[in-house]
Amino acid sequence: MSDGAGVRNEADGGVAGPVVQAGSIQHVSLTGAGQAEVGGPQSPPRQLPLAIRDFTGRTEHVAALDALVPGDEAGAGAVVVSAVDGAAGMGKTTLAVHWAHRVQDRFPGGTLYVNLRGYGPGDPATPGEVLEGFLRALGVAPERIPVGVEAQAGLFRSLLAGRRVLIVLDNANSAGQVRPLLPGSPGCLVVVTSRDSLTGLVVTEGAARLTLDLLTEPEAVALVGGIVGAERAAAEPGAVRELVRYCGRLPLAVRIAAGYAAAPHTTVGEVVAELADERSRLEVLSRGGDERAAVESVFDWSYQRLDSTQALVFRRVGLHPGPEFCLEVAAAATGLDLPVVRRVLGGLVEAHLVEPVGRGRYRLHDLLRAYAAHRAALDDLPGQREALRERVWQWYAHHAKTAHQVLHPAHRDWYPALRLDTDTRPELDLGDPAQALAWLEAEQDNLVAAARDADRHGHLPLTLLLTTTTGWILFRMGRWEDRLDLHQRAVAAARRGGDRTTETSALLDLGQTQRAPGRWQDAHETLLAGLALARDLHHPALQAGALADLGWVCLDQGHYTQAREYLLEALPLAPGAQHGRLEGVIEGNLSEACAGLGDYRQALHHAERSLPLRRQAHDRQGEAIALHQLARAWHGLGEHPEAIALCEQALHIEGHHRSPDVTAGILDALGACLRDTGHRERALRCWREALDLYHQLGHHHADDLRDRLHALEATDPGLPRSH
């Protein structure tokens, strides 16, 4: 297993999938040839957000959805898709979630929900992002999610085959965003909400179209009564009808206005009087054709009734770059203490301006988020908004860097120019590797959004630091396209800033990122550009890093002679760089090159030099790689017991320090040693596990290992067979 010289040399891996059964999920590890190992049961996912307590009306629409529920007969019909369309604020999500809660007990395989973010600020959710989340919800371990949308969609369809699962795809922007998320066999029902008519789904997938219009007056009046209470509504029937009229019977506007009227010591008539006094709001609400303007009008009225602290928090979270936010980042954005922010957010939740999505986590509906950002543009100075954004970027950058360094202490000062001396309170406790990894996984979408936001606003240091620290978790999660995008942004940002040293580092990161999915030609060209810059700068460590990465790309392709030439050129430039880690990388990769050329004595020499350098740098993953390289050399020299012991020692290094490609390489080597010592059944298990990882990584070693695995199976008909 070779190693690279840049920031992240980890890779994603593994194929694993659950079989979803009625009422439970059984974890199944699918090896390369289909051998299954069944684990314990897991409850089916139930991802629906909270249903609205006072849902009112839409009787015909609920009945239409009821009629679409598939029958219980096995194999009957096809996948049922309902496209719920209509203008913004019509209550499409409310209807879909309310109805899904009513019927989800008829889908024992589970209920999946996602906001596709098709309209509003921020980037729409990609099919790959959604599939990754669905696969995790169905029990697939992150490291076993396949690379690429097609592979993820295939696994998703396989998991749902023959099962009854309800899927709610909220806020889609097109049929193309939805199609990869559809199951392939009967029994499932998919409800899609969108402002788009989704004609493509109707034509090609046979979707049943359900269009929402404004509430009828009786429905809107009933909605107000459900919110303010029947007794209060009955006491002011004329005011209730006026409130409905001023809100244009738009469900979201009615709900917000009635919610305010439900507050203690407030009457419906008082709310109506305030709406009537706002001529501009009345004009907007009366137009009827611009639902976004109508919503903004009601939001503006609601916003004016907030106290100054509530208004501040609302504006601040409206500028948050990601799809949802935690309590701590809201505190960082506002400068308020956590208890105050928690209390204020609770009030905003009650006012239907913020939605809770989990313990200490919140989000804003797309329209509310746009409105909050609009209020920030009106009420805050440009410098205040920029300072806010920078505080949020700094908070994410600081904690991402902290988590990254906890997991990889050898990387602790690769970019000393990007150190931040700033107030990053409230400080999270990320000192434990498991906590650090969990935080990075939970915040990966926000980290990507923060990096892109910093880049859009031209903040070079934070763009680079966020890209550096976020790239690693994206590598681990197999989000190649997002990682490529961030590193391309980093290169462009460095060029705009005229920082040639940082540009060189960014090019090396980009080259490694291109190399991971096998884009070797792109990687080679990028790394050559980085090498040329490093030479112009007379920077030995960057030259060594570029040469080492070029050697790594050659090793991947089996070009051992060329790899050794690059690595030998890099070696005298490396001493002292990265606390000795870079020299250790080069020595280890020279061991790989020599082993590939059959010179196992020289391979042993280089591996023995690599191991202490890796340990000196506190590079735990590098230590596992060096042990594997020593094992490969001893195996080549015929010393099988020594090689087996070294592989087992490498596998005992904690899993969060080993990326899947490293683990696969160690298992591959261990299997070869076990085969040669007659332990063929154990060798078979090691190779199948390694092949499983290689397949999910799209690694070029997979074909070679599959051939060796089949050859081993052919030697003994009594061995367990692959399928």
Ordered list of secondary-structure elements with their pairings:
Blueprint: E1 17-21, E2 24-30, E3 36-42, H1 59-66, E4 80-85, H2 92-103, E5 111-115, H3 127-137, H4 149-160, E6 166-172, H5 175-178, E7 189-194, H6 199-204, E8 208-211, H7 217-228, H8 230-235, H9 237-246, H10 251-261, H11 268-277, H12 279-287, H13 291-304, H14 308-318, E9 325-326, H15 327-334, H16 338-350, E10 355-358, E11 361-363, H17 366-379, H18 382-407, H19 433-442, H20 444-456, H21 460-477, H22 480-497, H23 500-515, H24 520-537, H25 540-556, H26 560-570, H27 581-596, H28 600-616, H29 620-636, H30 640-651, H31 660-676, H32 680-697, H33 701-715
Parallel strand pairs: 4-7, 4-8, 5-6, 6-7
Antiparallel strand pairs: 1-2, 2-3, 9-11, 10-11
Helix pairs in contact: 3-4, 7-9, 7-10, 9-11, 10-11, 10-13, 12-13, 13-17, 14-16, 14-17, 15-18, 18-19, 18-20, 18-21, 20-21, 20-22, 21-22, 22-23, 23-24, 23-25, 24-25, 25-26, 25-27, 26-27, 27-28, 27-29, 28-29, 29-30, 29-31, 30-31, 31-32, 32-33
Annotation keywords:
723 residues, alpha/beta, single chain
Characterize the structure shown:
With 723 residues, the protein is of the alpha/beta class. The strands form 3 sheets. The protein has a 5-stranded parallel β-sheet, with helices on both faces. A 3-stranded antiparallel β-sheet has the order 1-2-3. β2 (24-30) and β3 (36-42) form a beta hairpin. The chain is globular and about 95 Å long. The model is unreliable at 4-41 and 278-294 (pLDDT under 50).
